[in-house]
Structures are given as C-alpha cells and as structure tokens.
Specification:
With 153 residues, the chain is mostly beta strands. It has one domain: Immunoglobulin-like (Sandwich). Helix content is 9%, strand content 52%. The protein has one helix at residues 6-19, and strands spanning 27-32, 36-43, 51-67, 72-81, 88-89, 94-99, 102-105, 114-115, 118-127, 135-141, 144-150. The strands form 3 sheets. A 5-stranded mixed sheet has the order 1-11-10-6-7, with no helix packed on it. Strands 2-3-4-9 form a 4-stranded antiparallel sheet, with no helix packed on it. The N and C termini lie far apart (61 Å). This is Lipoprotein.
Length: 153
Amino acid sequence: MRNLPPSVALLALIPTLTACTPGPEPETDGAGFGESIVVAHPVGAHPEEYRRDLDAEALYTIDDVVLLGSERVAFVLNVEVPETGRTFGLSDLSVDCAAGGNRNPALTDRVLGEATTSSYAIPYTCAIPEGTGELLITVEHYDYRLEFTGTPG
C-alpha cells in the first residue's frame, strides 16, 4: 500500500475495519419451560410498508422437556405466528442447550422455511452432560434471544 494514492489506501482498510466491528447484541428475554415469551413483530409486507403504530405478537414456548437417557434431552419449540402481512421466516431459527458449562446445538428433523399465520410445534433434541439439573435452552430468531430455563422431566 506504500505506492497507492492515500484515498485508495484508505479504501483498502475498510474491509478490515468493518470486519472487526461487532453487530448489535440481540434483545434478550427469558421464561421458564412451559411459559411463553411474547415478541412484537412489525406488520407490513416490506420494511418501507411497516405500520409503526401496529405490531403483531408472536409467542414462543418451550414445552415437553424430557430426558432421553442420561445424556440427551427432547423438547418442543412452539411458535404462534401472528398475522404480519407477509410470510414469517422460521429457517433462521437458531436453538441450543446449555448445562454444566457445555453448550450444544439443538437438532430437528423438520425442514424449516417460510411460515404463515398458524401454530408450529417443532421437535428438537440436544446433547447434555450426564446428571444435568438446570437446563438453559436459547432460541435466537431475528434480533431476539429468548432464554428458557428449567429442569428436564
């Protein structure tokens, strides 16, 4: 970069500088197993059409948390999709389990995609340490982090 004009040299640094800039932290909310977390989503087909005076409430709940042997847990993520004026993307859901200092991804055999107004029950399984008592299941969706805690049954 020594022989480059100063404006070109600065442009070369932009990818490096932006790669180090962390994005905003997702908004976090928490509840126990069997309890719902309400997340407001804008109504409208496209961001420029969102109605700032109206939000639709999606409900997220973790239910039926049961042990599968000593090192696996199964549970159901229920999502109540409201009328938003557009499809509701479920393909970008990220779900994991944490216990005993370990964090593991939750797995589902369901193919998740675009959803319409309805209720969706998505079964998951997750590896956990033997003897797990308290379990944290984290759901990240859009700009939200939802944390559900409890003891597997």
